Amino acid sequence: MASRSFLNGVLRHWYFWIAMPLVVAIEAAFVFTLPWNEYPRAEWAVLFDLCVFLPALHLIVYRKALSRRALLIRTVAIAGLGLWLSRYLVPAESQQALLHLAKLHGGLVGVVIVFELGVMMLVIRAAFARDADPQRLERDFAVPPLIARLMVWEARFWRALAGWFSGRK
What we know:
single chain; elongated
């Protein structure tokens, strides 16, 4: 029975379990078998697949399942991961566009971190609210159900502990 639920989870999230590893494996095979001195602009194929194709596929697959905020964050993260992975896959002597994009990568990572911190603060505020509801965390922030319940439970614990130490109820 456990294997059936595992299989259902894999099939439900086929993008992360099947598509992403398959595309990365194909890219790695392409990179390691290509005569780079004959095709100096081949880095564009790697960049397209990892930074455009995979994020676009993610947008298409999860457009109805995730909120726009969660979809945007995950898609930008996948594009950043593709850019980071491209820097390691493409040989250094063949990196022309990647040298210019690497400068943008640091700035984009900074923007994503600031955005993630903002979202994290919103999630923490929602979890620590007096009327915290796990279903609201699931719906508004795409938090998995078990994690949402644990977050609300932990927030209630810390609020009760703080009230006990301060003498309030």
